[in-house]
Amino acid sequence: MTYRRFLLDTFKAARRLIYSSIPVDSKTPKMTSSLDFYQVGDAICDEILGLLEMTANETLKKQDIFRLGVSGGSIANILSEGMHDLRSDFSKWQIFLCDERVVPEDDKESTYGVYKRDLLDCHPEFPKSIFYPVNCSLSPTEAAEDYEKTIRRAFGLEKSKEIPSFDLLILGIGPDGHTASLFPGHPLLEEKVKLIAPIENSPKPPPKRVTMTYPLINNAKVCLFGSQGESKADMLKKILVDKDESLPVTRVDPKNGRLIFVACDGAASKIGANPSRKAKA
Fold it and tell me: Are 271 and 237 in contact (CB under 8 A)?
């Protein structure tokens, strides 16, 4: 057994115990999601991978498919390095992108390109077919419309107005408090209709992107954020302690789901009391 495998098994057992102790009444609508905050020492990678494995396998006990949304940046690096080592039936997974830069997949800015290069090309046993990349040969508007149709088709909701509910979205926290490609002050923060929206003028390059919007993000069963490094300490305090609503991360609140933050000691250094909470109806 590898040391990473040992850590994953340890985290899995610990989190199952914690999750089972939190009562959830699925019949009661929630105004505010539950929040679990985990401070995990020097690194967050094994905790995130352990939570991913546990969530996937618990989901597959109840349904046939586990639907996951993944992000770029440091989250992509963590998942690309360790996802192949998880113990799960990957043939029952569907993996989508929370946002994407509209560039060719061999461009260094491509989110899918990171997963292709560092996961799929390095580990051919990991099934490429479970990834659903954005068609970046299209314009941002066309790519967003096409990706929303792709998601609806995968959920069997092509002809329905029902909003799909992802089993897990793994999201990052930008230095300005952005998540996916939802940036502070951007009009897309107020989008209420589109589930996947185009961006032509992203404040962070490259300017052309597509992104999940709040109606889709906040309909997920679990939203998981990772925060690594002391440089994230001030931003994490603004999100979890000050509850600064101008920050896109703060507005992630899955109405019938669970919100999880995983932070290393450095990123959590200004949090103070544990901000975990139970859901409020």
Answer: yes
Which residues lie closer than 8 Å to 20 by C-beta, 6 or more apart? none
Distance CA 71, CA 113 (A): 12
Helix 45-60 to helix 73-82 angle, to the nearest 10 degrees? Answer: 70
- 100 pLDDT more than 60: yes
Q: Distances in Å between the alpha carbon of 28 and those of 23, 104, 281?
A: 12, 44, 7
Query: Does residue 93 sit in helix, strand or coil?
Result: strand
Is pLDDT of 24 > 50?
no
Residue range 107-137, pLDDT digits in tens: 999 999 999 999 999 999 999 999 999 999 9
Q: Which two tokens stand for residue 196?
A: 């996947």
Phi and psi angles of residue 232, each rounded to the nearest 5 degrees, phi first: -90, 0
Residue 160 reports pLDDT greater than 90: yes
Task: Extract the runs of DSSP E, i.e. beta strands, from 85-175.
Answer: 93-97, 99-101, 131-132, 168-171
| Torsion sign across C-alpha atoms 250, 52, 211, 193 | negative
